[in-house]
Write a structure and sequence with these properties.
By secondary structure, the protein is mainly α. It contains 20 helices and no strands. Helix 17 runs antiparallel to helix 18. It is globular and about 75 Å long. The protein starts with a helix and ends with a helix.
């Protein structure tokens, strides 16, 4: 009891000390020092809270409210919200309501619909069938290390349609794993390749891509084709080739020659019972978005020059898949039951992904309102060399944040702030956001608490550190190469 009282008193004293210190800085050194101190204090406390595995959404939201409160208290000339209530304190929460309503209606809906569609494709067996068909040509390759590298590239291509790292990994463990084991690939080598299967999040289905599109106002499919594809095409080949050499190196070093699998893994049961054409269903949104994008619009006849957004394309794709599944099974009850997963996953994505984006928007609003961006860059000379340093610093922060947390959602939390920093530094927002997005997913593959690492290591029977050890060289080279390509190509 006494210990709990001491902790409460310590916390209250810390909060009061922070307010007094900030007040002293404002009146001793002026507004600029005060703004920088308050902003850095909040950013450090938020980062520390996330690192200690406190609920990230609550920490980020509290940080944003704190900055908005300081702005309302110390800077009465700064407008907190457009819909002024007459009370600057109430204005804070009106602004939060505006941020939430705008984000949920736009970005949040896109993310939830993509997640729901991905789950539905999995539930009807379409994702498993796509994977099953894609691995057929690989069975013809006899050289096991070439096959490992080829499988990595295949998995990254499949990531366009199956955006969940854990979901794709589990599909690969039930379909690709027995194929690789049957030709003599070691457990650790196969596990390492599968665990690195979505080491780079990209494409229209990736949450980060949707966020970049929303922040920049750039068409989602164009973000993928113009900004991501030229970089990832090089990265995939480079990392795939390195996998061939590094897995061979570790097998030799660990004395592994020809392993026999003690527990043969059966092929995915769902895929066996669905027809081949189901493999096309996960690709339908990509076909629609590409066909009716600005990239090919002028080559289409007038009646086909149609505009379609991501949400509409996915809902249409779901409808096509639902009708297809209903006609094939001729069982409306079973077909409608499978739709439960779509809405369940939409709810789960709101809890895990959309919520952190909403809270991050509030934090960014606080940082912008208090004047942190303008103040910070008033001290910084605007030149090209500094722009590169900014990109590297922010990418390293995101990389290590993902490594510590085991998730790429760190990018979602700090992307809006990074965009404002890029604008303040006078550099392309894409030059900042694209490498940060890739850094988050690469950082996740180095984390022993990452969901995909834990799932793969547990399934195969190796430790997470064995997987990370085998992947660190190729993914480390990939990270450096990604930064270099981003500087040159964006």
């Amino acid at each position: 009891m006494q210990n709990a009282m001491f902790k409460k008193a310590k916390t209250i004293l810390f909060i009061m000390s922070c307010f007094l210190a900030l007040w002293a800085l404002k009146y001793a050194f002026g507004d600029k020092t005060f703004v920088l101190a308050a902003s850095f204090l909040v950013i450090i406390l938020v980062s520390a809270g996330i690192a200690k595995q406190y609920y990230a959404q609550s920490i980020i939201l509290t940080g944003g409210i704190f900055l908005l409160f300081i702005t309302a208290l110390y800077f009465p000339s700064v407008s907190i919200t457009k819909a002024v209530s007459g009370s600057r304190f109430i204005d804070i929460f009106i602004e939060i309501k505006s941020i939430f309503s705008d984000s949920i209606a736009k970005l949040g809906l896109i993310i939830m619909v993509i997640a729901g569609f991905s789950r539905y494709m999995n539930d009807i067996g379409a994702s498993a069938k796509l994977v099953e068909l894609c691995i057929q040509p690989l069975k013809k390759i006899n050289a096991k290390y070439i096959l490992l590298g080829s499988c990595y590239i295949l998995m990254q291509i499949l990531a366009l349609f199956i955006s969940s790292p854990s979901g794709l990994a589990l599909l690969m463990l039930t379909t690709l794993y027995p194929v690789l084991r049957s030709i003599g690939c070691s457990k650790a080598a196969v596990a390492s390749v599968i665990a690195s299967g979505i080491c780079i999040d990209y494409g229209p289905a990736a949450t980060g891509s949707v966020l970049i599109s929303e922040i920049t106002g750039y068409d989602l499919f164009s973000v993928f084709v113009d900004k991501q594809l030229p970089i990832v095409a090089i990265l995939f080949v480079a990392i795939g080739v390195l996998h061939m050499f590094m897995q061979a190196y570790w097998d030799r070093k660990e004395g592994i020659t020809q392993e026999q699998d003690e527990n043969e893994v059966s092929e995915n049961e769902i895929a066996k019972h669905v027809p081949t054409y189901y493999a096309l269903l996960p690709i339908v949104p990509m076909i629609l978005l590409f066909t009716f994008s600005s990239l090919v619009e002028e080559n289409l006849p007038k009646f086909l020059q149609i505009k379609i957004d991501v949400v509409s394309a996915i809902i249409l794709s779901f409808f096509i898949a639902f009708i297809t599944d209903t006609i094939r099974t001729f069982d409306l009850k079973k077909s409608t039951d499978k739709v439960i997963g779509l809405f369940d996953q939409m709810g789960q994505s709101f809890i895990t992904v959309v919520s952190i984006l909403l809270c991050a928007q509030v934090l960014v609003a606080g940082i912008i309102k208090i004047g942190f961006i303008d103040t910070l860059f008033s001290f910084i000379p605007s030149n090209g060399h500094f722009a590169y340093i900014m990109v590297i610093i922010f990418s390293l922060l995101i990389f290590f944040g993902s490594l510590i947390m085991g998730t790429g959602t760190v990018f979602n939390a700090f992307a809006p702030l990074s965009a404002e920093v890029a604008k303040g530094a006078g550099i392309s927002v894409f030059k900042m956001l694209v490498p940060l997005h890739f850094s988050a997913s690469l950082g996740r593959t180095f984390s022993p608490i990452s969901g995909v690492i834990i799932a793969v290591s547990g399934f195969v029977g190796v430790t997470p550190f064995q997987i990370i050890k085998r992947n660190c060289i190729q993914l480390g080279v990939g990270y450096v190469l990604m930064l270099g390509l981003s500087m040159v190509m964006l």
